[in-house]
Amino acid sequence: MTAPKVEHLSVEERNARGKSARERTPLTSHRGWVPAADRPDPVALLEEQNLTREQDLVPVRHGRMLVSPFTFYRGAAKVMATDLKDTPRAGLNAQLCGDAHLSNFGVFASPERSLLFDLNDFDETLPGPFEYDVLRMTASFTIAARNNGFGAADAHDVTLAAVRSYREAMAQFAQMGTMDIWYARLSEDELTAAIQQAIGAQKGKARRKARAMGKNAQRNAAKARTRDSMQALSKLAEYVDGQYRIVNQPPIVIPARELSGSFGMSPEETWDAIHGQLRAYRITLQDDRRHLLEQFQLVDVARKVVGVGSVGTRSFIALLQGRDEQDPLFRQVKEATASVLEDHLPKSRYRQPGERVVQGQRMMQAASDIYLGWTKGVQENRFLYWRQLRDMKGSAEIESMKPLGMSFYAHACGWTLARAHARSGDPIAINAYLGKSDKFDKAVTDFSERYADQNGQDYEAFAEAVRSGRLQAIEGV
Known about the structure:
Helix 6 (130-147) crosses helix 18 (439-467). The protein is built from 18 helices and 13 strands. The model has no long low-confidence stretch (mean pLDDT 93). By secondary structure, the chain is of the alpha+beta class. Helices cover 49% and strands 13% of the residues. The chain is globular and about 65 Å long. The strands form 4 sheets. The protein has a 6-stranded antiparallel beta sheet, sandwiched between helices. It has a 3-stranded antiparallel beta sheet with strand order 2-3-5. It has helices spanning 11-24, 42-50, 58-65, 69-75, 77-84, 130-147, 152-174, 178-183, 188-200, 204-226, 229-236, 256-259, 267-283, 287-293, 353-364, 403-424, 427-434, 439-467, and strands at residues 93-96, 105-109, 115-119, 126-129, 186-187, 237-240, 243-246, 253-255, 297-304, 315-321, 328-335, 373-376, 383-388.
């Protein structure tokens, strides 16, 4: 296979490309969004997604989306992808997260065991217009701020902070060397220093609130450090007849020993298939990591429901054991389907959706899980990707955030998304397009407020579909 020819433009040419894009697609063109006249029924789009999902879990997905307009938004990436196809584009592409809402950022351990803040969900990743991720992120801040009871001014300011941070960070990356961009990351120490700086900038009552924000961030980091395979073992497994096995907690966690009949296989056939999947997955790892994983033996597997938008896609956890039963390693195995963006953008270059997710994650994250890999499922048209279940992963408590804390968080997310795009896209051209003024910031904030209004209407239509019996929902699970 011959490698494609790579074009290398000068800095001046890349700047010119961005400025030319601004002439074709003015920054103000992102204002004034209205839904398309032929906009599909959002409930019908969700029903379309449900067709390939585990039918006993579809009502659980609906129940989680029904909690609020914010949780509905988290599960409605397909709806927004349909709306984004008609929005203005500058023609500057990057690797997209595809679902860059504020709950898909968080902390996790780097291979060196340091806590990093980064994007952490790539089920929808695909190359595409950089604006798609920016709009998905900023609209999520508007919706979350409203959900938390913020006034219009505070919700506006939080959203503005997110997009301003993205633009200003991209300006920084446009001045950096190629390798410096690749190595850029937001570490725990850098987050702590930024929080202390934010505290010092406040006075009186605002300073007390800022200190409370700092203490909450410290607690979350400390909690994340405890989230490892040993902690998962204590919560998810029981010791029976001399070895650990995953506890049956339906419908959220159901061990394979309880599920085998659901897939039309005997228990023996199910176990053979699981071992076959593990062997196929190991082949996708680089040699040193494959050697490391081969020192663990498979002990048990279970289906485990996760998230909001992912509910109903196949998701499993696997318990492996190293030197003894006190040396566990939990893996998460998630189904990978086509990205919702592939309905409207060029299809992924990767024929296997699991590889699409893994390669997109490696491209966008500052440091990725050493155990990322993929396999084809046993059944036709089922694809999976593998990662560690708990690797000091932690997430912010969005629903309890106050305006000051959410503004700080918006700044961190904006910087992080810009860094992810700068790794795969052209930061010089994107920066030249965004410019030094706040026109893009204001235009995107206007979009976000309009889209939040539409999301609220979609949520009401969804809730009515549940009330009428068109959709079934199980709440509180």
